[in-house]
Each structure stands twice: as C-alpha cells, then as structure tokens.
Design a protein that fits this description.
Elements: E1 14-26, E2 29-35, E3 51-58, E4 61-68, E5 78-82, H1 88-95, E6 102-106, E7 121-127, H2 131-141, E8 148-155, H3 164-174, E9 178-184, H4 200-210, E10 218-223, H5 225-231, E11 245-250
Parallel strand pairs: 7-8, 7-10, 8-9, 10-11
Antiparallel strand pairs: 1-2, 1-6, 2-5, 3-4, 3-6
Amino acid sequence: MPAPAPAPTRSAVFHPLTVAAVDRLCEDAVAITFAVPAALRGAFAFRAGQSLTLRRVVDGREHRRTYSICAPAGAAPRIGVREIPDGMFSSWLVHDVTPGTRIDVQAPSGPWRADPAAGERHLCIAAGSGITPLLSVASTVLTHPSARVSLVYGNRTSRTVMFAEELGDLKNRYGPRLQVVHVLSREPRDAELFSGRLDRDRLHRLLTGIVPAEVFDHVWLCGPFRMVEDAAPCSPASASRPTASTSSCSTSTRPRRGPAGTPGRRPVRRPS
C-alpha cells in the first residue's frame, strides 16, 4: 500500500490576497502592500527578514517569484520589487499591479530571526534591492529602546535608492540609534570613501573607520553575490568577535557556499 501523501506545509499553500497599496520607491521599483483577511492573519504573521512567494499564470504556465518582506514584524506584509529589464514578473508588478489586484501568495518563509526583544546592536550591509529584508530587520529591532542599527547601503546613484523616504523617517524617529551610510558607485560624493562599489577594500575601510564592526552583536548582509562574499570576511563573526552572528542572502542566482563562521546563510532568487 502506498504511503499517504504528506500534509502540505504552511508555505506550500497559495492564498489569493488583495493588493492594498502600491508605492513608487524610485524610477524602477515599487513597494506592494497586501491586505490580509482576519482568517489568514496567523498564517501571514512574519519575522523580520522573511519572504513571500508570489504565483502568476501566463499563457497557461505557472510562474513563481520570491520577494523579501520590507515591513516591520507585526505590520501588514509589504514587499519591495525592483524591475529587471524584460522581466516578465517584476515588470508586471512594477507597472501593471494596482490596489485591488488579486495575487496568489504563499505564507511567509525564511530562517532569519531578528529578535526585537533583545535590544542588541545590528550592522546591516545592503546593495540595491538587498535593502528590502534589512529594512524589515532595522525597523523591527529598533522598537527596543536599547537597540542600535548601523546601515551601509550601496546603490548606483541617488535616483536608484529604494526606500529613501522610509530610511529618512526611521532616522528621524530613532535619531542616534540609527546610522545610515550611503555609498554610490556611479555618482560622486564629497568623500572618496562613499563613491564606488562596495568591494572588499571599501567595506574594510568602512568597517574599521566609520562603522567599526567589532561593536555589533549581529551582522545582516544582502545584495549581489560578490558583495556578500566580500563583506563576510569583514564581519565580527569571522574575525574580531567569534560570538557574533552573521546572516546573509544574495540577490543573484549564482551558487553559494558560505564560509566557516557565518551561520544562517540564505540564498534568495529574484529572477525576472
């Protein structure tokens, strides 16, 4: 007799959710907020840094994409989406989805565990759309009055910065407990250190001079594969503070193998 089929896991079931709001972040990115009915609020409760998988059927074919949640834990689920050139899924979300659109969405998933009750010190390093889960982490942990967050955020130009207003609002709300360092690769800044790609040399200089890595309890990394790999050796989990933790994800699809001492690595694919 064949074994009974396993019961579906929480993340395997899609639920049709209504889009409550679409906010333009910059020229090629939006934030999409979902309305969750009362009966599903337990299923869609999420931890800071988790993701939602969306489903769309085009010409009879099913397509799925995973996007990180950018909202603080306890808020309505909200994702950040940057358009990929000729991206079938991302272009639809950025240009065609409006409030009232119904989208099939899985319950939140992902292993990140940013604890807002701990009141610890967090270093966030992001590039491009990698800011999305880190915004969720920062806005969640800062609700503790003792928590501190330093964010190093790389982009091409000031016009491509996702969540610029949200970051400004967080800075106004939490003042010295939030430090934000912007680095632009294709736009000159007053200081050379803040102009260029977030490569290993620049990260090392930032994390020794501007944002000393050894003072943090947790390091969160999200961005292109190369940036994540370059940042990992600079983190306290790999050098100055072996007891600190490092969690990372990549916005690229290249296979990854995490270096020793960096637990909780989570690849996130964001094609098209």
